[in-house]
Write a structure and sequence with these properties.
The complex is a heterodimer of chains A (306) and B (359). Chain A has 306 residues and is mainly alpha-helical. Chain A has helices spanning 3-30, 38-56, 59-83, 88-107, 132-137, 141-159, 161-171, 173-178, 183-209, 221-231, 236-258, 265-287; strands spanning 121-122, 138-139. Chain A is 71% helix and 1% strand. Chain A has a two-stranded antiparallel sheet. Chain B has one domain (41-320): ABC transporter involved in vitamin B12 uptake, BtuC, CATH 1.10.3470. Chain B has helices spanning 13-37, 42-51, 57-82, 90-107, 116-142, 146-166, 200-218, 220-230, 232-237, 242-269, 280-290, 295-318, 325-345, and strands spanning 3-7, 346-350. Chain B has a two-stranded antiparallel sheet. In chain B, helix 3 (57-82) packs across helix 12 (295-318) and helix 4 runs parallel beside helix 6. The chains are: A mainly alpha (306), B mainly alpha (359). Chains A and B meet through helix 3, helix 4, helix 10 and helix 12 of A and strand 1, helix 5, helix 6, helix 11 and helix 13 of B.
Chain lengths: 306, 359
């Protein structure tokens, strides 16, 4: 394997958790709900995933548990913001704080237990293609899943009736309600989907990327996923590009550190966060003439009138 | 759906006070369940968390030391949140305040005079305010999401502090430890009681709370802040400039977080080191909400949260409960506060199931 191939491979593994979480949050925000608790759901996925995988000895059980944990966290958020029409920003923040704390408690007995990560699955024939083959077709199942989700979500949102209704709930919940659609229930499904995606993203961190548990191991990736959704203008394909750009940046920073670039390592480590700010600013500056493309009802609680 | 939310005609005054109390009660009830799950005696655990910290004068001083930064930051955040400006990066502004003020202490070490401390406090406030200007200006000029920008800047501030104390500001005689020199006496806040840790910062914080309470309740500026948050359209018709207000509240909350940072450095820790803040900037968000975005409320809530902070440390030592448990309680508390708030604005009512409209 050449160095370039190796770099591409690591970029893909660094991007995948970002992409998984971002695509979930994208659907949530398209339904008009702003869930700032991605970081909390993600780290609960990471903690539960590795805990269950160690106890049962099965990675698959771990992933399923991570999905369940992400959805359970999302359900708390749904009760607050959909059921009780609470402030979404505050609810999301408390979800993150709660998740960071609870994951530490859940993961505490498993600190330092290393296990074998989930292996890569080469796609027959395709993985034999020189250069492209090993990069694209010799990956772990999560990478395929993330790509499938991009295609699936994009198809769902723009090619199906249900997707149209979901977007309607995000753009104008009052009209959607007037047309007889159960806005809150649709938003609930979207929020749960987002929780499941964040849970998978978390399990990727603790089962594949660094196959053991450390407290706070998401290290702000959930927040970067939120930034990617804005960066992507709420479009799945652009989320794919955004996630790979950010993943590339993280890897670039690591390589620059190991290559002994004469810059303090802290500056390189801060780079992804700084670039996030620059990217958000650039995207807004470019978009200034066209107005905002965010779903019109984003972040506003909806209480059906009767 | 058999249950629906119905807007109350007017929020009851009693409910305003009742809701946070109810939230605290629910949190206590839930924590009993959690302790029971962890195999602890719930009553013993509760007393370690909530009673032990305030059982003697030394403990009360410790609570004041922890509550000081929380309250100070929360008062600033309350102004922000009240006017619908989501400054989530108080942690970063806190660290930058500590860095700017601590920088003065490091720079003047060995030749400073009585002017050092005031200069540090001013530098800390200016640094925090300037750091908060980044999300504020980007929001008002380009409508960039202030939540994400202010949050990303927290990580940047952490790395900056890490670099400074490992690099240029490292104590030359500190056995290579990543920390600055211990501040000279003229660069530290005087303690209030001999042998205690409670310092002048607590008094300054109480003054800030009093001023903020008067501003919010009795001045046009306070009214403007509330109006822009509650009814932005009406505020615009009334001629209030919401962009200028955004800049102003970010500056104030940044300055207060910065002040909290420099006072933590000059009063409590007396040097700079990585991991200098136990997440005060984030916890203050909970304090602000628990205090109903009201300065006096923030004071009460800050003291309560400070007790759980110390209780969490006690529980780690005495009961071997992971310290992350404190965050679980804090998150839970915020959930309950938000849920109880709905009960103020709305009434839950049972209705007959609605007929399904054919789609």
């Amino acid at each position: 394997m050449t160095l370039a191939e190796a770099i591409f491979l690591t970029v893909i593994t660094a991007s995948t958790p970002l992409l998984l979480a971002a695509i979930g949050e994208l659907v949530v925000e398209r339904a008009g709900v702003l869930n700032l608790g991605v970081e909390g759901m993600m780290i609960m996925g990471a903690a539960t995933g590795v805990a269950v995988a160690i106890v049962t000895g099965s990675s698959l059980a771990g992933v399923l548990a991570a999905i369940a944990a992400g959805m359970a966290m999302a359900a708390i958020f749904a009760v607050l913001t959909l059921g009780l029409a609470a402030n979404q920003v505050a609810s999301g923040l408390s979800l993150t704080i709660f998740g960071l704390g609870l994951s530490g408690v859940v993961g505490a007995p498993f600190v330092g237990i290393q296990r074998e990560g989930i292996g890569k699955i080469p796609v027959p024939f395709l993985s034999e293609i020189p250069v492209v083959g090993p990069i694209l077709f010799r990956q772990d199942p999560f990478v395929y899943l993330a790509l499938a989700l991009v295609v699936g979500v994009s198809w769902f949102l723009w090619r199906t009736r249900a997707g149209l209704v979901l977007r309607a709930c995000g753009e104008n919940p009052v009209s959607a309600h007037a047309l007889g659609y159960p806005v809150l229930r649709i938003r609930l499904y979207a929020v749960l989907f987002g929780g499941a995606c964040a849970g998978i993203a978390g399990s990727y961190l603790s089962l594949v990327l660094t196959p053991f548990w450390t407290s706070g191991m998401t290290a702000g990736r959930g927040w970067i996923a939120l930034a990617i959704v804005v960066f992507a203008s709420w479009l799945p394909w652009r989320a794919l590009i955004g996630a790979y750009l950010f993943g590339g940046l993280i890897i670039l920073q690591l390589h620059a550190q190991s290559a002994g670039v004469r810059v303090p390592s802290q500056f390189l480590a801060a780079l992804p966060y700084l670039i996030t700010i620059v990217a958000l600013t650039a995207i807004m500056a470019l978009r200034r003439s066209g107005g905002s493309v965010a779903p019109q009802g984003l972040g506003r609680p909806f209480v059906p009138d009767r | 759906m058999p249950l629906v939310l119905e807007k109350r005609p007017a929020a009851g005054a009693a409910a305003l006070i009742l809701s946070p109390l109810l939230a605290v009660a629910l949190t206590l009830a839930s924590s009993i369940v959690v302790f029971w799950f962890l195999g602890q005696d719930p009553w013993r655990a509760l007393s370690v968390y909530f009673l032990l910290p305030v059982s003697d004068f030394w403990g009360i001083q410790e609570v004041a030391v922890k509550a000081t930064p929380l309250v100070l930051i929360a008062v600033g955040l309350a102004l922000c949140f009240r006017s619908n400006n989501w400054n989530i990066g108080a942690e970063g502004q806190f660290l930058i305040g500590a860095i700017c003020g601590g920088g003065v202490a490091v720079w003047t070490h060995g030749w400073g005079g009585p002017w050092v401390l005031p200069l540090m406090l001013v530098a800390g406030m200016a640094g925090g305010a300037a750091y908060a200007m980044i999300p504020a200006v980007l929001k008002t000029r380009l409508r960039v999401n202030e939540i994400l920008v202010s949050l990303m800047l927290v990580y940047v501030a952490e790395f900056l502090l890490d670099w400074l104390v490992r690099g240029p500001w490292r104590d030359p005689f500190g056995f290579n430890m990543p920390q600055t020199v211990t501040f000279a006496p003229e660069a530290t806040l005087p303690v209030l009681f001999d042998g205690g840790r409670m310092n002048l910062g607590t008094v300054i914080t109480l003054v800030v709370v009093a001023v903020a309470a008067v501003v919010m309740a009795r001045t046009v500026k306070g009214f403007e802040i509330k109006l822009v948050g509650d009814a932005p359209r009406a505020a615009r018709f009334a001629g209030f400039d919401d962009k200028r207000l955004t800049i102003a509240v970010f500056a104030i909350s940044g300055a207060l977080a910065g002040l909290a940072g420099v006072m933590e450095a000059a009063g409590t820790v007396r040097q700079l080191l990585p991991g200098f803040s136990p997440g005060y900037g984030f916890t203050a968000i909970i304090v602000a909400f628990l205090g109903r975005l009201n300065p006096i409320g923030c004071l009460i809530a800050g003291v309560f949260i400070a007790i759980t902070f110390i209780g969490g440390e006690n529980a780690q030592i005495i009961l071997r409960i992971p310290r992350d448990m404190t965050m679980v309680f804090q998150g839970m508390l915020l959930f309950y506060v938000l849920a109880c708030d709905t009960l103020i604005l709305y009434r839950v009512r049972r209705v007959a199931p609605a007929r399904r409209v054919p789609t």
